[in-house]
Specification:
Helix content is about 45%, strand content about 10%. The protein has about 230 residues and is mainly α. It has one domain.
């Protein structure tokens, strides 16, 4: 389950696109252990709040699914279904669902229209990052990690190419990551990819602990949160 060899990344041609060092491989082994222990503890501690959020969503917006599901690109470039608590009105389509990432908004009108689709309770979930809680189960399953490059939609082709070449897709996508605590959507694709590669190069327990602390601080102060 936790074998180091599973993290070796190969292209379709069968040759390594980027070779991880022994240090990186050893830490990925430890990182997976930490993910399982911490996410399991978090699920147990947060189960009641998660059930309460689901109940509130069902009562306030009975026509809207409790969970929002969307295909994202994960480790080794494979697609997986990311889940969040729903924050938009039933039937609403965000730029991301249309295939346009949030960083590519064109004009104030489209941004306002998307903002109007977010429910009142959904705004609270986004500002507090509580909409991300269902992803703890995906960390347990191995589809995601607590900390890593944020999973993107398939349509963001340019940044996928840069990430692929940089070896970033050897890592499981994270609930939070180095790019997220350094600007989130204010970053260009190039800067995001640069932060992702920097994380890959410097990946360690101290680096993850730093990102975790910065994430908690940003959540508390609502820095860069979605409205």
């Amino acid at each position: 389950m936790f074998g180091i060899e599973e993290y070796r990344f190969k292209t379709d041609g069968g040759t390594a696109a980027y070779t991880l060092t022994e240090r990186q491989l050893r830490y990925l082994f430890l990182k997976r252990m930490i993910d399982v222990v911490v996410s399991l503890a978090a699920v147990v501690l947060l189960m009641i709040p998660m059930l309460l959020i689901a109940l509130i969503l069902k009562i306030l917006y009975p026509q809207t699914p409790v969970l929002f599901r969307q295909k994202r690109v994960g480790r080794n470039g494979e697609l997986f279904t990311l889940v969040k608590f729903s924050s938009m009105k039933g039937g609403a389509i965000s730029p991301e669902q249309k295939g346009r990432p949030m960083t590519l908004y064109r004009g104030k009108k489209e941004a306002e229209e998307c903002g109007n689709c977010v429910t009142r309770f959904g705004r609270f979930l986004r500002r507090s990052s509580l909409d991300e809680l269902p992803q703890l189960f995906q960390v347990l399953s191995g589809k995601m990690s607590l900390i890593g490059p944020r999973p993107l939609i398939p349509q963001e082709r340019e940044i996928h190419t840069v990430r692929w070449d940089a070896g970033v897709y050897q890592l499981c996508p994270g609930i939070t990551g180095w790019a997220q605590v350094n600007g989130r959507r204010m970053l260009s694709d190039e800067r995001k990819a640069a932060y992702d590669r920097e994380y890959l190069d410097k990946m360690s327990f101290s680096m993850d602990w730093k990102i975790f602390r910065m994430t908690i601080r940003q959540v508390i102060h609502r820095e860069g949160m979605d409205e």
